[in-house]
Amino acid sequence: MTFRRTLPAEWAPQSAVMLTWPHSGTDWADCLPEVEPVFRAIARAVIRFEHLIISCEDEACLHREAQRLTDHAQEHGLPGRVIGVVAPADDTWARDHGPLTVKTDSQVQLLDFGFNAWGGKFHWQKDNELNRRLSEAGAFGSVPIEPIDFILEGGSIESDGRGTLLTTSECLLTPSRNPSCDRTDIEKLLANTLGADRILWLNHGYLAGDDTDSHIDTLARFCAPDHICYVACHDVADEHYSALAAMEEELQEFRQSNGKPYRLTPLPWPDPIYDDDGERLPATYANFLIVNGAVLLPTYGVPQDEEAIAVLTEIFPDREIIPIDCRALIHQHGSLHCVTMQLPAGVVER
């Protein structure tokens, strides 16, 4: 018997969030004192609402961080929330090397898609093995994990939980990921593995400083089955203006499965942030994480932070909005959603 698969929306009930901890063997080596507090802030916020799976390169790091977070959880009457595993990793982008979880009737299954660091841009072999190592260590309980011979990062797709995926052609059609697959091949594979009935392809939109070839989670996000929020730039002098205006027009043309247009909410456009070499960094408020009862929102120490909090409060009136300063993260060209991967209800049961 064949069971229909669905990829839950991010707002569906969750059991845990994954974090892959930075270490001295990663590109974070020179800024660990700045970035580790960001990971701890994310971890403490997650623990309030669900379990946290933390993996570290070495045992000393795991003992230090897991114990610190366990103590924090116990102080707040939340024992047993932290699951720690020693596992090698090339980097920290759990959104892209973490597993995708599908539901089949009342069951859940982890899918371990291939990861090649956004088309071979960086080292990736350890990250590509991480899900298997976590599974063997019991981090995912008894939930089976299925390897999928296809390169796919979690940050490249958005699901409405009802069979519609939102993605970008710039990312999924890049030859350095799956060179033998065209758009039709990819649509068939996503239908078979994730239960996608429809795929909405954005052909425009990018962020300067982004290494992912325009991941959708930096540009546009489902907030509900009928609602999409997106980054919008209204400064005609900004290098992003034309591409994001074209993306906005595409979003306006998209239709739900019932033929109705989507509700669309533009997100604030943060002031430009540059690194020491003058490279613009990919600050985006679209890179938020939805957890049980809350939304973790990246902020960057710019005037638009307060407006972003207000907009997210309006979009998610029934969830607590928790701002987390992620300016340190964007110096490695990602943000809050990029370093996390949620696991739906039914995966971690403790």
Structure commentary:
By secondary structure, the chain is an alpha/beta fold. The chain has a single domain (5-344), classed as L-arginine/glycine Amidinotransferase, Chain A (5-stranded Propeller), CATH 3.75.10.10. Helix content is 28%, strand content 25%. A four-stranded mixed sheet has the order 1-5-6-7, sandwiched between helices. The longest helix is centred in the first third of the chain and has 17 residues, at 59-75. The chain is globular. The chain starts with a strand and ends in a 6-residue tail after the last strand.
Give the topology.
Layout (H helix, E strand, L loop, with lengths): L4 E2 L7 E7 L11 H16 L3 E6 L2 H17 L6 E5 L7 H4 L2 E5 L2 E8 L2 H4 L4 H12 L8 E7 L5 E3 L4 E5 H4 L10 H12 L3 E5 L17 E5 L2 E5 L9 H13 L9 E5 L21 E3 L2 E6 L4 H12 L4 E6 L1 H4 L9 E5 L6
Parallel strand pairs: 2-3, 3-4, 6-7, 9-10, 12-13, 15-16
Antiparallel strand pairs: 1-5, 2-17, 5-6, 8-9, 11-12, 14-15
Helix pairs in contact: 1-2
